[in-house]
Amino acid sequence: MEDTLLAVDCGTQSLRAMLFSGTGKLVDKAKVEYEPYLSPRPGWAEQDPGVCWGAQLKDPAAKGSMIGLGEVHTRGHFYRSLIEGLAFALRDGLERIERAGRIRIERIGLAGGASQSEEICQITADIFGRPLCAGETFEAASLGVAVLTAAGAGLHGSIADAVRLMVRPGRVFTPRAGNTELYRKLYQKVHRRIQRRLEPLHGQIRQILNYPERSAGEWRPAGGEG
Questions:
Q1: Residue 125 belongs to a domain
Q2: Is 205 within 8 Å of 211 (Cβ atoms)?
Q3: Which of 26, 39, 88, 195 is the most exposed place for a label (fewest CB within 10 A)?
């Protein structure tokens, strides 16, 4: 019988167990939903949402916003705008990494739940303007556990060998030139300017509503409300 590796992922909504072969193929999986959540406070999952899902640490008052709404927009446009906003933020992070490292990243990998959607993958590739490769399995965290376990247990000679034999790319999404150019203009002329323009208003919202609530010793921007 072929050696198998059991990986367990304790997520925010469920406990998942994945069984991988020594070559990284997903053999079987099972999931148990949390009911209720393991919560330190009512309405929370097992972690503090302000830490995991909140605004950036240096600007805790930052908020999400939607602009440009018109009578032509439907629920579908709202949903797509959320996807595009997240991808714009990821592009901003990518460019920061490239500037800091003085490198150019030519190809991007995508894993996790979002990689199951071909539309999300394609939009992200269009916004990045670079090829995007989704993994063969979207359960990347569990596959990573299996890779480390395989190397540690001697099933493969090293972590590099385990990665080479167990991690396989899936579909590659190529950016569409027309969409990429449109997103480039929106990113440079709109998205990158939004936060600076709205930052003072975010501070005022926080002063009025006390949301998010200030924590002891919190970093404050010089000369203003954060």
A1: yes
A2: yes
A3: 39
Structure token pair of residue 99: 């500037």
In eight-state DSSP terms, residue 114 is G
Specify if 105 maps to a domain: yes
Residue 51 lies in a domain: no
CB atoms within 10 A of CB 17: 14
- Phi and psi at residue 110, to the nearest 5°: -130, 135
Q: Using alpha carbons, select from 92, 125, 88 the residue that is nearest to residue 110.
A: 125
Q: Where in the sequence is the domain holding 69, given as residue range(s)?
A: 56-131+174-209
Overall number of domains in the chain: 1
Q: Which pLDDT does position 120 carry in this prediction?
A: 95
The Cα–Cα gap between 44 and 38 comes to: 8
Joined tokens for residue 226? 């954060």
Give the CATH number for residue 101. Answer: 3.30.420.40
Identify whether the C-beta of residue 46 lies closer than 8 Å to the C-beta of residue 38: yes
SS3 145: helix
> What does the alpha-carbon distance between residue 6 and residue 27 come to, in Å, rounded to a whole number?
10
Low-confidence winner among 52-61, 79-88, 191-200 (lowest mean pLDDT): 52-61
